[in-house]
Amino acid sequence: MTLVTTKEMLKDAYANRYAIGAFGAHNLEIIKAIIAGAESVGAPVILQTTSSTYKYVGMPYMMAMAKAAAEQASVPVALHLDHGESFDTVMKCLRAGYTSVMIDGSTLPFDDNVKIVKRVVEAAAPIGIPVEAELGTIGGVEDDLIVDERLAMFTDPEMAGRFVRETGIDSLAPAFGTAHGAYKKEPDLQFDLLKEIREATDVPLVMHGASGVSEESVKRAIGIGVAKVNFSTELKDLFAEQLRRFFLEHPTENDPRKYFLPAREAVIKLVEKKIGMLQG
Q1: What is the pLDDT of residue 147?
Q2: C-alpha–C-alpha distance, residues 35 and 78, integer Å
Q3: Considering 82, 143, 156, 170, which one is annotated as catalytic?
Q4: Residue 9 in contact with residue 80, Cβ under 8 Å?
Q5: Is 82 a catalytic residue?
Q6: Interaxial angle between packed helices 157-167 and 110-124, expressed in degrees from 0 to 180 and rounded to the nearest 10
Q7: Helix or strand holding residue 135 (H, E)
Q8: Can you spell out the DSSP letters for 192-205?
Q9: Whole-number Cα distances in Å, 145 to 47, 154, 238
Q10: For residues 27 and 45, what is the distance between their CA atoms, to the nearest angstrom?
């Protein structure tokens, strides 16, 4: 099948209290692992890239890999831009064929955030592409985006309701205690706040920084209204760990058809586990 949008995926997940896994698609091996893991459990899946990823891979290659993955997959596959840093970045992805986009104006003043998000929605809606945006500031590191956790700000429910109404976004990434990158300890998630945000917005919510969050906490967030859960750091860590282990055991091996296989198989199992965790 062809690439699909995330609109119906998230709508159904939100209504039925489960979540769709969105996985960092950093190269061909990881993309193949994500698809294989999703097919194994029979669940729709989101391939997700930042602008740093498509710039590294090259947009024509990125689109070719994503389209090939979707065409051969037995489950619905979407391609999502994560943390689009500008209107121009989002437009580049829309023109290329991304089927879902995020515009991140969360570091801007509220009115400026509304302005840029609304502009993206006005461009994406006529071609049927859903838009995700962030309100509040999620700490940690996501590629070139670095937010000191001391400066991270929780999302205000009343402002969130206004934000959704004024922008017309399809999904909202609220700040309720998660962070990008690796955690030093289990994060203190604000579930009462998340419930207030859901009641004020009534749109699918997105959990960023889920790598390392306990299964219990993820399930609790899904029960409140999280319909999309992002994973990236755990995939990268595991892939790199498996490569290091392989070369320690096979120091003279030079065939990528051999040394990529254990890393890919490990990521497949991780994707299966994560998607299973999201099924409610």
Answers
A1: 43
A2: 11
A3: 82
A4: no
A5: yes
A6: 40
A7: strand 131-135
A8: HHHHHHHHHH-S-E
A9: 19, 18, 22
A10: 16
Taking the whole predicted model, whether its pTM rises above 0.85 is answered as: yes
pLDDT greater at residue 213 or residue 89: 89
Closest CA to 236 of 201, 217, 212, 207: 212
CA distances, 259 to each of 28, 110, 238, 253 (Å): 14, 48, 14, 8
Tens-place pLDDT, residues 11-37: 999 999 999 999 999 999 999 999 999
Instruction: Tell whether the torsion through CA atoms of 156, 195, 213 and 235 is positive or negative.
Output: negative
Question: Distance of alpha carbon 223 from its chain centroid, rounded?
Answer: 19
Give 137's DSSP letter. B
Mark 111-142 as b/e (b = at least 16 C-beta within 10 Å).
eebbebbbbbbebbeeeebbbbbbbbbbbbeb
Which pair of tokens denotes residue 187?
Answer: 């994060």
Residue with the two structure tokens 């995700």: 132
Which structure tokens are listed for 52? 């740093």
Tens-digit pLDDT profile for residues 209-252: 887 789 999 999 999 999 999 999 999 999 999 999 999 999 99
Task: Say if CB 151 and CB 181 are below 8 A apart.
Answer: no
Report d(CA 254, CA 256) in Å as an integer.
6
CATH of 7-277, picked from 1.20.1250.20, 3.10.25.10, 3.20.20.70, 2.60.40.10, is 3.20.20.70
110-124 helix and 87-96 helix, angle to the nearest 10 degrees = 20
Tens of pLDDT, residues 161-219? 999 999 999 999 999 988 755 545 567 799 999 999 999 999 999 999 887 789 999 99
